[in-house]
Design a protein that fits this description.
473 residues, alpha/beta, 13% strand, glycoprotein, glucan endo-1,3-beta-D-glucosidase
Length: 473
């Protein structure tokens, strides 16, 4: 059964234009050498009405600058500290005392992200995640901060075994009992929420033949009917979020809330990065903000008013990987806007999305010809491959290679000595083969060509000597 027609959906938006129920924040990454001082950044946030920020560490200069600002802050305990936090309660006590209690409440820390996308971390830190979360929470209890500050961990959508249709969403089976069930139980017991990083851009980029650009950018479109639930989806973001809600429901955790800790769209990309353009980034982020601040949840969770953190505050010129990685920013380092979008309900009153008059091409905004069912297909029609980034560095490539050939279950037999793809005997060539094997094995799902930023998707067959890269299993 179709729950809501497009015309009725648009009517509701205008009838109840901007009930401030959702919340918008921004990720403040700093992998760059040209960013303004933390003090200037706080002024920038306040001048644009941004009242929530998420950072990827606990840098004292940043936390001091945020003191007294009224901006709510989510801090991060990095993946490399998970082992120590999981194994030693004393470490968790010290970390919380030094990095949280020392600044709270003047700096309004509201959450701690324990790790980030741990399941795709090539250093095999998954088993330490839930114990680390529990120890960090226990440290908050010691300081009587556990009621004010939540503990969670951002997951990538690659943690899902199934994501289409949304109603069939499920977590990867090997993660359910060791991680997801105990983590969701912890979130329930502590009144916390699941943190999710969701990027419709990745799904569109890899499946532009079957996903319409309008569906990815929250523009008017016929919608996509979920064959399981009967709900009609009018944007890919809601479909992705509901796949996670469905996965939680399958484990009987319908009561757990969600915060989208990362989402965004790049304003520039390489030639093969379909859809990366300033116009599309402005449309995605602007329409997303309207969608969130207008109130209302998703088809599966209609009362789930979401908090969403845009990625990212600045373009970061030292990030590895394809061009898009350095061009997710809302602002240039000189604090000028990359494109003009609203951030507050007041600004939304005068906001109108401006569709491009004609489709661009390649990395500057190719739309693709697909106007199919709009869903995230479990496999795609056009071939894509996953390759290693030459800019990632030896350590990151080796770690990714070890993960792919180990826990990731990639078929790495062809890159063993004397095998068909051993030559050229270079780290980048071997990592590319392993990354692609993992990517194809996982039917090119969202987030399976990442490896901590060491990999990216290409649309032409990789060429490493005479080695042929598989396109599917």
């Amino acid at each position: 059964m179709e729950r809501l027609t497009l015309s009725f959906f648009i009517f509701l938006l205008f009838l109840y234009p901007f009930a401030e129920s959702g919340s918008i924040g921004v990720n403040y990454g700093r992998i760059a050498n040209n960013l303004p001082s933390a003090v200037k950044v706080v002024k920038l946030l306040k001048s644009h009405g941004l009242q929530r920020v998420k950072v990827y560490d606990t840098d004292p200069a940043v936390l001091r600058a945020l003191s007294g600002s009224g901006i709510k802050v989510t801090v991060d305990l990095p993946n490399e500290l998970l082992f120590a936090a999981a194994k030693r309660l004393s470490f968790a006590y010290t970390w919380v005392e030094k990095n949280v209690a020392a600044y709270y409440p003047s700096t309004e820390i509201e959450a701690i992200a324990v790790g980030n996308e741990v399941f795709v971390d090539p250093h095999n830190t998954t088993s330490f995640l839930v114990p680390a979360m529990k120890n960090i929470h226990q440290a908050l209890v010691k300081h009587n901060l556990h009621s004010a500050i939540k503990v969670s961990s951002p997951i990538a959508l690659s943690a899902l075994q199934n994501s289409y249709p949304s109603s069939a969403g499920s977590f990867r089976p090997e993660l359910v009992e060791p991680v997801f069930r105990p983590m969701l139980e912890f979130l329930r017991q502590t009144g916390s929420y699941l943190m999710v990083n969701a990027y419709p851009f990745f799904a569109y980029e890899s499946n532009s033949d079957v996903i319409s650009l309008d569906y990815a950018l929250f523009r008017e479109n016929p919608g996509v009917v979920d064959s399981g639930s009967g709900y009609r989806y009018f944007n890919l973001f809601d479909a992705q979020i509901d796949a996670v809600f469905a996965a939680m429901s399958a484990l009987k955790y319908d009561d757990i809330k969600m915060v989208v800790t990362e989402t965004g769209w790049p304003s520039k990309g390489d030639e093969n990065e379909i859809g990366a353009s300033a116009a599309n980034a402005a449309a995605y982020n602007g329409n997303l903000i309207r969608r969130i601040l207008s109130g209302g949840g998703t088809p599966l969770r209609p009362k789930a008013d979401l908090t969403v953190y845009l990625f990212a505050l600045f373009n970061e010129n030292k990030k590895n990987g394809p061009t898009s990685e350095r061009n997710y920013g809302l602002f240039y380092p000189n604090e000028e806007r990359v494109y003009d979008i609203p951030f507050t309900t007041e600004e939304l009153k005068d906001y109108h999305d401006k569709p491009s008059p004609a489709p661009a091409t390649g990395g500057d905004g190719q739309t693709g010809s697909g106007h199919g069912d709009g869903g995230v297909s479990k496999s795609q029609t056009g071939n894509t491959w996953c390759v290693a980034s030459g800019e990632a560095g030896k350590e990151k490539l080796q770690a990714g290679l070890d993960y792919a050939c180990g826990e990731g279950g990639a078929d790495c037999r062809p890159i063993q000595p004397s095998a068909t793809c051993y030559n050229p005997n270079t780290l980048q060539a071997h990592a590319s083969y392993a990354f692609n094997s993992y990517y194809q094995k996982n039917v090119r799902k969202i987030g399976t060509c990442y490896f901590g930023g060491a990999a990216y998707v290409v649309t032409q067959p990789p060429k490493f000597g005479s080695c042929e890269f598989p396109t599917g299993y």
